[in-house]
Design a protein that fits this description.
The complex is a heterodimer of chains A (114) and B (116). By secondary structure, chain A is mainly β. In chain A, 0% of the residues lie in helices and 53% in strands. Chain A starts with a strand and ends with a strand. With 116 residues, chain B is an all-beta fold. The N and C termini of chain B lie far apart (41 Å). The relative contact order of chain B is 0.33. Classes of the chains: A mainly beta (114), B mainly beta (116). The interface between A and B is medium-sized, with 24 and 23 residues.
Chain lengths: 114, 116
């Protein structure tokens, strides 16, 4: 199957700082990527849909000014958590569609805000 | 919008037994149903999927069945092994066609434990 990577795999930052997470499709082009958030022992919660060359579509209740998404190319989408606070600590996962129905997920990024 | 219910939330079996996880969905327009396996600290891994134009699909020890009338689908794992222990998620999506794909709606997850 297609491969999606994320960087970094884990990050610790201080409260008030910003953190950028990268999501790359390694062997295919993805016009659409998705960003999810997952709390321990819970399901995946879709945060936003990232479209190459256009603005992201955010789910209800997700602050677009806090979670900045940039889909600059067909293989790269970035999520920036601005002015991070301890409640933003979570597991962030991206995914992308290859040509077809299948949606592949990255390995996730563990964010801890102290 | 779509709503996906998944049961059971936890499932414990002995090695070699079969495991069945069930999901129901609410949107009759949904036409794509993947299953993901997630190990601790990792991203979900697509293990099998089914489209609405078929009723069953099998890949070695894993099979998925779909009942469109009842709007439910199930994951069947036979001859379970300890390495099958993980969290399993079902999902549903409506693909409108073309190159634009709708969003997946996930079930709540099932923690499967296979005892040696």
């Amino acid at each position: 199957g297609a491969v999606v990577s994320q960087h970094p795999s884990w990050v610790i930052c201080k409260s008030g700082t910003s953190v950028k997470i990268e999501c790359r499709s390694l062997d295919f082009q993805a016009t659409t990527m998705f960003w999810y958030r997952q709390f321990p022992k819970q399901s995946l919660m879709l945060m936003a849909t990232s479209n190459e060359g256009s603005k992201a579509t955010y789910e209800q209740g997700v602050e677009k000014d806090k979670f900045l998404i940039n889909h600059a190319s067909l293989t790269l989408s970035t999520l920036t958590v601005t002015s991070a606070h301890p409640e933003d600590s979570s597991f962030y996962i991206c995914s992308a569609n290859e040509q077809g129905y299948e949606q592949y997920f990255g390995p996730g990024t563990r964010l801890t805000v102290t | 919008g779509e709503n996906v219910e998944q049961h059971p939330s936890t499932l414990s079996v002995q090695e070699g037994d079969s495991a069945v996880i069930k999901c129901t969905y609410s949107d009759s327009a949904s036409n794509y149903f993947p299953w993901y396996k997630q190990e601790l600290g990792k991203g979900p891994q697509l293990i099998i999927d089914i489209r609405s134009n078929v009723g069953e699909k099998k890949d070695q020890r894993i099979a998925v069945t779909l009942n469109k009338t009842a709007k439910h689908f199930s994951l069947h794992i036979t001859e379970t092994q300890p390495e099958d222990s993980a969290v399993y998620f079902c999902a549903a999506r409506h693909n409108a066609g073309g190159t634009s794909y709708g969003k997946l709606t996930f079930g709540q997850g099932t923690i499967l434990t296979v005892h040696p």
